[in-house]
Amino acid sequence: MKQQIFNYLQNQEETALFLQKEMVGIPALAPENGGTGEQTKAEFIRTYLKQIGNFRIMDLPAEDSRIESGERPNIAAIINGRDQDRTTWIVSHMDIVPPGGSELWNTDPFTLYQDGDYIYGRGVEDNHQGIVSSILAAKAIIANSVVPCTNLGLLFVADEETGNKYGLEFVMNNHPELFGANDCFLVPDIGNSDSTLLEVAEKNLAWLKLTIEGKQCHASTPNKGTNTLLVASDLVLRLRSLYSSFDKQNEMFKPPYSTFEATKKEANVPNVNTIPGRDAFYLDCRILPEYDLQEVFSEIDRILEDCSNYYNAKIEKEILHSESSPSTSPDNDFIKKLMDSIQDVYGVKASPQGVGGGTVAAYPRQKGFPAAVWSTLLGNAHQPNEHTSLTNTIKDAQVFVNMLL
Ligand SMILES: [Zn+2]
């Protein structure tokens, strides 16, 4: 049966090409990126799924008044398995990022261009490849009358590139009835070209804005003011102590420790001879899952208070974004099965590892589900001349089906 399905998939290049061509021609941009959302692309996917047949299809739209249709589409499509209490979900996102300067592209980003095994266009890698591989896997299962060991659930979500509020986060919070206690999640949206990168953990993420209020004055009389650039500079250095306060190591991550980096700095005064009375800068923290974010925030508060007292300046901390993500154990059955399947198809041993943070796998993990992010990607998402390989698309589909036999 396995060989029969592998052969079937090897002959699906035309299908992959057709799906990619249609989807590249439907730019699905979020309102934040000046677009009208994912509705047209979702309709195309839904119509195609209905043609293959045998799915239970559910629409899970999230209200969004900023766009004409008033909603951001999410679609679940399920094929029943032998164990119907358990669903293996493959999650891909329909939205894309803007193409960027057209002078950087060799071809039109919204017209698919093929050069041998490679296809070019905005979205082909991020995340059309995941959409296509998962549809091909389902198509192969249906066409060969296979009953997978668990249900296969395809989940096509909106809003991945701009925060997930109308996408997977919405679906998981508002449709808990879809998910059974033993479900697992595969997200084909990160990967490397030799198929070995298997993401099972993320660092906790926190973005902070630190604003310092001092007293502006003429640069010739610094004694009459409080120089906020001086305070900010000292504070940036004081915050380096977070590296030693939270210095645990975890070799699953690269780098294997938590990071606390000052990044953006807002403009202060426009002229040289004024001492600034207000400064703001930002701190990007990627914290190993061994630590609780609250512990880190308390330590940051302590540093701010010391610094504030020393300079007699007001320092305010604003948490712009924070996200905790428990990890999935590399020993989890689902991860082992996925690794075996990758080994079977690609002949390589994938290595479970952690990344800096920011994939949709955080949402199922927060609800206690095992989740892996894996696919075979050339790694040019968001770049001009985004391209991907048809062979990888088909082989990834083989990995998905193989895992469900
Ligand atoms: Zn993506």
What can you tell me about this protein's structure?
The radius of gyration is 24 Å and the shape is elongated. The longest helix is centred in the N-terminal third of the chain and has 20 residues. The model has no long low-confidence stretch (mean pLDDT 96). By secondary structure, it is an alpha+beta fold. The protein folds into 2 domains: 280 residues, 3-Layer(aba) Sandwich (Aminopeptidase); 120 residues, Alpha-Beta Plaits (2-Layer Sandwich), CATH 3.30.70.360. The strands form 6 sheets. The chain has a 6-stranded mixed beta sheet. It has a 4-stranded antiparallel beta sheet with strand order 13-15-11-16, with helices on one face.
Record keyword descriptors for this entry:
about 400 residues, alpha+beta, Aminopeptidase, Alpha-Beta Plaits, 2 domains, six-stranded mixed beta sheet, four-stranded antiparallel beta sheet, 11 helices, 19 strands, binds zinc ion
